Amino acid sequence: MESTKKAAALALAHANLGLETYDRIVGALYDAALDAKLWAAALELFQELFAANYVTLILRSPDQTDMGLMIAVGDVEGGGRVNYLTYPHSATPFLNQPADRVFTVDDVMNESEWRRSPYYQHWCAPRGVFHVMGVDISTPGAGKLRFRITRPESAPKFSAEDRARCEALLPHLRRALHMHNLLDRSESLGALYSQAIGRLSIATIVLDESGKVLDQNLIAKEILASGDGLKVVGGRLEASYPSDNRELQRIVRNAFARYGTENITVAEAMSVARPSGLVSLGVVVEVVPSSEWAEGKGQPAAVVYIRDAAGKSLASSAVAKQLFNLTPAETALALELTNGLSLEEAAEALNIRRNTARAHLRSIFSKTGVRRQTELVRIMLNSVAALSRNG
To answer: CA–CA separation, 8 vs 205, rounded Å?
Structure first.
């Protein structure tokens, strides 16, 4: 640890980079790692430090099927201070640079070669870019990200001090990008899992330690909006009937009581009666695992899963058609039957004759290998059709 501090201090001294400036830029980088909207602010500090006309972070290089993507700080073609732009250049003079090593144009070619290069003539010169300092940053699992700092020809070249400053800040830029990639991937997976649960018609409600509703998915919002069995009162989840509400609050309190104990995986369930007379809602409450680094109110502590057995299946008609090789008409009938309609009710809902519906059902039985309507409903509900986006 002591040697690391000494190395950092030497790097700062060599770069002639004041501690206040260093701290401000490093703080901005880690803020950006947590919030993608703040990357522009961090890059603007680099622009100020290096007296640059542009600072660019190329997030994705273009390939044959997709354009690249970059964040550019500087007034690009009158677009304003910050621009999120496509990056169309698959070939530049700076390809295949060693990872994590700061370079300038002078490290790659001489001035006359640079002036003659198509990249300079067609891209850089029209935008007032002449001096370029950059680094290709390696990030685990995300390949290289290209970082470029530029100045106009009227400005001085990037000096050894500029290079040293960039090298001093590079480890933090690399870590911040890696953190951002990990968090972004985690959020994407979390959103994907949440969508999958929603497509299975499972409502989810997240409660904090005080029992306040922190989050809910679309299915939960629909159930709570109906007020049929469950509702939110004063920011807290309640059941419609007093007896059900007492039981609901008990199992929620039990979940909070188990928080941080060995029984964290234990879940409790109950049925919640509905004033409408529809079949009761099924409710499961369990503890949300969390780190022990923080304490106090407001931390997520429990998740409530709700299943409405009377709700319609959200199975994708396109996927159901592909899975069982059904025609569009057969798929429509199968989904109506899955939603609990009788054959006659399904025929009426689809505006087809009963004999036509029976013919479709015989074909569905043949293709799916079942013999009874109840078996058809079971395989439809247990298939992966509900896990795909609706369509």
So the answer is: 46
The residue that leads in pLDDT, 382 or 231, is 231
Distance (Å) of CA 217 to CA 53, 70, 224, 260, 288: 45, 32, 11, 25, 16
Long-range contacts of 219-224 (CB under 8 A, 24+ apart): 219/306, 219/308, 219/311, 220/306, 223/281, 223/306, 223/308
Confidence of residue 64 (pLDDT cuts 50, 70, 90): very low
**What's the topology of domain 201-307?**
Beta-Lactamase (3.30.450)
Considering the domain delimited by 317-387, tell me its CATH architecture.
Answer: Orthogonal Bundle (1.10)
User: How is residue 311 annotated by DSSP?
Assistant: S
For domain 2-188, give the CATH number: 3.30.450.40
**H or E stretch at 72:** strand 68-73
d(CA 224, CA 200) in angstroms, rounded, equals 18
DSSP string, 115-130: HHSHHIIIIIGGGT--
**Rounded to a whole number, what is the distance in angstroms from the first to the last CA of the chain?**
56
The token pair that represents 348 in the structure block: 């009426």
| 171 contacts 22 by C-beta, under 8 angstroms | no
Per-residue pLDDT band at 7 (split at 50, 70, 90)? low
Residue 167 banded pLDDT, cuts 50, 70, 90:
very high
Evaluate whether 123 touches 89 at the Cβ level (below 8 Å). Answer: yes
Exposure on the CB side of residue 299, measured as CA atoms within 13 A: 15
Tell me, yes or no, if the pTM score tops 0.70: no
Condensed to tens digits (0 to 9), the pLDDT of residues 294-339 reads: 555 545 578 899 988 777 666 667 777 888 888 989 988 988 888 7
Q: Is the dihedral of CA 141, 88, 164, 52 positive or negative?
A: negative
Q: Which two structure tokens, joined as six digits, stand for 160?
A: 């050894």
Residues whose CB is less than 8 angstroms from the CB of residue 141 and which lie 6 or more positions away in sequence, other chains included: 181, 185
Whose structure tokens read 């007296």? 51
